[in-house]
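Dear colleague,

As promised, here are the two records you asked about, laid out in our usual form so they can be pasted straight into your sheet.

NAME FIELD: protein one
SEQUENCE, THEN STRUCTURE:
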Amino acid sequence: MINTQDKMAPKYLQVANGIKKIILSQGLSDDSALPSHSELVKRFDVSQGTIRQSLGFLAKTGWVRSQRGKGVFVNTIPACERREFLGNGAVGLLVVGGGLDTIVRRMIIDEVACVVGGLGKDMRIQNIQPDSTDFSQLKNFLTEIDSVALYGNVSKELILLLKQHNIRIAVIGHVPSDGAELEGVAYFRADMVMAGRLAGTVLNAYGHKKISLVIKSASSYSEFIQKGLCGACQSGGLELPAIYRCEDMEDLQSVAAELSSRPDMTGLVIDGGSCSRGLLDIFSGSGIKVPQDKSMMVIADGHVAEVQPSRFSKIYPYSCIDVRLQAVTHEALSWLMSGAEHSVVKFIAPDVRMGNTLELCS
């Protein structure tokens, strides 16, 4: 049926706008075929003559072209015209690396949808691989948005591409993977220096004097965690005899073997839920008890610590430094929706969440 908000326009223009919405909402690319005349007649409940008039108007304005005996096909539509039709553009969420179906990513998607939907804007979601240099898959995505939140292993090359399209950019949670902050881009992330400092301070308060740090090799913020933890050690008289960098389960096996031979290192600071779950798996098989033998402070989003399922349910939830990714996402979206143009780098303070992986050192 025809969209009632266009009812003051001539019928053929109402239908033309409806066809534009089909093209954009379904992400039809160049050379994609439109539905047949008969299908459009049924969809819009109008005559064949009105459909021909609508398609003629769209052909005249450059949206489509007709090929005799083959049908009607979508043309390359200028980005400015797409955005103008969409009402100054939708808000995009571009996730770099991994999929969309993880606890953290689902939480980010829900938060973005909540903020964007609450202000009556449309939302577009796209996922690309971090090592991709072929951005052609973003072609339609970029023409439909006027602002975007980036999450994941964001590269300078990707940000520069977005800037070329005059898209406003907010980066969520990550340090740029290949350079410093760029002018005209907003960055929102947890204060990971403070997170490292808090983890060391809590372990110190529980009587742990020798601690170790386990961090992911690919982490873009491990240096900040290490800096904060070293600061806590210096001010609190803690020893940090070992820092382990892990890439896979084999590395974690080696770390667990060394930790089992060091009963004096009773406190662990672990970067991320995946490392902590891996160590718990290995510890359970080697007779190391958490938190009796080793106390853990995990630096991760609190939602992961709360809801991540595990067969080690008796020691969940984690004692963690909650990096509050939901709050970081909300700040980024609030900046995007405000229309602000200035660059900003904002750090969100983490929280301490006490769980079942921490015990007083005897």
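NAME FIELD: protein two
SEQUENCE, THEN STRUCTURE:
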Amino acid sequence: MGGQIGTGTVFTEYDLAPGTHTITLTATNSQGESDAKSVTITVKEKPAGGAIHVEIESPEDGDVFEYKKPLTFSGSAVDDQEGKLKGTSLVWKSSLDGDIGTGETFTTSDLSGGTHRITLTATNSRHVRDFASVTITVVDRRLWQYQYKLSDAVAFSSSPAVAGESVFASSSDGTVFSFDAATGKTLWTVEPPSIPLGIAVVGAGASSPVIVDDYLYIGCYGFNSSDTTAPGILLCLKHQSGQKVWQFLADLPIDSSPAVSQGNVYVGDVGGKMYCVNAQNGSKVWEFATDDTITGTPAVAEGFVYFGSADKKVYCLDAQSGDKQWEFETGDSIYSSPAVAGGKVFIGSSDKKLYCLTSDGKLVWDFKAKDVITTAPAIAGDTLYVGTGDGTVYAVKTNTGNEFWEFKAGAGISSSPAIAGQYLYIGSDDKKLYCLNNFTGEKLWEFETGGAVSSSPAISNNLLYVGGSDSTFYCFKADESKNAAWPMFKFNPERTGAQQ
């Protein structure tokens, strides 16, 4: 009586007209060979005097929802003879997921990504049925994900880097990964290295990889079983193969992410030292000691190295000699990393202020936030973006320090923003990755992971990469943008944090 009614091994159809139908299932293999079987069924007219009126109140036909977002279904059914139908008399089904709920209303966040035909079927005590349906779309922005040692609670808390057709990430147990950027296929892994004096690497901390030419640089840390000291290790690997080129031992663990400029690698340790290491052979060029921990990442610009320390100070050193050019004291410890643009240095402090300094260390302005600033600012054009400990993301004008907009996440922010065109991406301790309009602060979408997102996103070829504390590394389809390159933490190997 009709044409095609469905595909696959199972489906539900409510629209068959009354009458006799011959139902034929045709199977075709890859060589084009086919076979078919048929059955005959009869669809009866609805009984008179017993109509059921079914209505879906929400969602509405054509609605679009983000994956894992809680979605409330509500509907009703009234039988002409029995009145309002309730409970298990009302059954909700999805064309993709099967049975999803019963009753007049329920909420779920478990729908698969894709286009769903949602059907509410009502059945009265006489076994008469009727239905209503709507079509909705659940947008799952993930292209692929990699899950690693979930039972051991190993996090991807550092930030990824993209080079060519590969993306690189490190986990909290010290393993470095190379993935195919488009498919997520694991290309190589490098486990924690063995180093002298009975020291074994036990983690990568929060250090993020940086790629320059054929080489990957990353910091990690270890322990010495004889005296419990914890040296830091700066590793250089060939990024195509993961082969180790050299390693440099710092005095204490490295949580800082290395910056690379003019043939040298710059990185700090938790003992408060900033190191300059030859990028080719791993030999120490110089070191500079502060009075407390360095966990932030240095920025290198115009021959100078800028960084903060938990001793409350911002430092500027000569990049070649390590000689101190100036220091600027804030009101509390600094765990933030600086951004450098337009001859100015921007950095946050635990005193809840964002500072703008001249290249010779003079205060231009400070901006008072609502909580501590431990993350790295990101700059695009004349606007700076930064997250704070209470979950606020601020957009601040770089020339005046005036607030442009703010957005409130559900928990603190340990992630730094990545910017692509009009889009800003940032993670939060509320387990979510957010996409904001960077001109207005409007939330465009969010994706909820299984744990805090302290990793800072990287963007390349309209793909977005970020790690989660749920032992999962994610790849998403980024929003289309003509300017979609933020390939590593703080944008470039010099870690300036500025997209000009």
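A couple of things worth noting about protein two: The radius of gyration is 29 Å. Confidence is low (pLDDT under 50) at residues 195-203, 224-228.

Best,
R.
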